[in-house]
From TrEMBL:
Keyword Phosphoprotein appears in the UniProt entry: no
Pfam families per the UniProt record, alphabetical: OmpH
The entry's keywords: Coiled coil, Signal
Protein name in the entry: OmpH family outer membrane protein
Source organism (scientific name): Xylanibacter brevis
PROSITE patterns: PROKAR_LIPOPROTEIN (PS51257)
Length: 205
């Protein structure tokens, strides 16, 4: 019998964003507000993706939600899979011991097991699709919140380019171009204020 294990590839891809790459080049420690691209006339900054994923409260909260949904789905599928395995074992045992009153009875139980197996396959597909949709919602929310924040943040900072840095996708970047902590602090402040506004609306109801 096929072993039914819930696939979490979409979720694993998100969690992988939060992992640190030990091979990343060492940055210098000059502060971000000093000499940002003044020589070329272009102001450049970057945001560390791994730090964003592990310190932005929205990411931490949504990751917990995805983990819970993934675990619940896996437990459900494992339970249903065990029930199917028991039914198949029982059928085989009765078949070996001539436990069926007729051939029709054996065929009827076999068809029931096949339906049970099809139902399990459909359940697995549905749960994986639900997790994929949740993951997409998370990705869309993260991208939307980051873009809106940077649009407001950059009105004063006036950077020409803001890059995302993950692992060693940027081979070298001076630490003075790093605005990660500014971005995380700003995002968390807005995220918390959103919750406060929602709580006040609930209190008025």
């Amino acid at each position: 019998m096929k072993k039914y294990v819930f696939s979490t590839m979409a979720f694993a891809a998100i969690v992988a964003l939060a992992s640190c790459n030990n091979a990343a080049p060492k940055m210098d420690e000059q502060p971000a507000n000093e000499a940002n691209g003044s020589e070329s006339g272009i102001k450049i900054a970057y945001v560390e993706v791994d730090s964003l994923m592990t310190q932005y409260d929205f990411c931490k909260d949504f990751t917990l939600v995805l983990q819970k949904k993934s675990n619940n789905a896996r437990n459900t599928l494992n339970q249903k899979g065990q029930q199917l395995q028991n039914a198949m074992n029982n059928f085989q045992q009765k078949l070996n011991n001539n436990g069926f009153a007729s051939r029709e009875q054996a065929e009827s139980q076999q068809l029931a097991i096949q339906r049970q197996q099809n139902d399990l396959q459909q359940l697995q597909a549905r749960l994986e699709n639900e997790l994929a949709n949740e993951t997409q919602t998370y990705n869309d929310g993260l991208r939307d919140s980051l873009q809106h924040f940077l649009a407001a943040y950059n009105k004063d900072k006036k950077y020409d380019i803001i890059l995302t840095k993950q692992g060693d996708n940027i081979l070298y970047a001076a630490k003075r171009y790093d605005i990660t902590q500014d971005v995380i602090n700003g995002l968390n402040k807005h995220y918390k204020s959103t919750f406060k506004k929602a709580d006040k609306k609930e209190d008025k109801k």
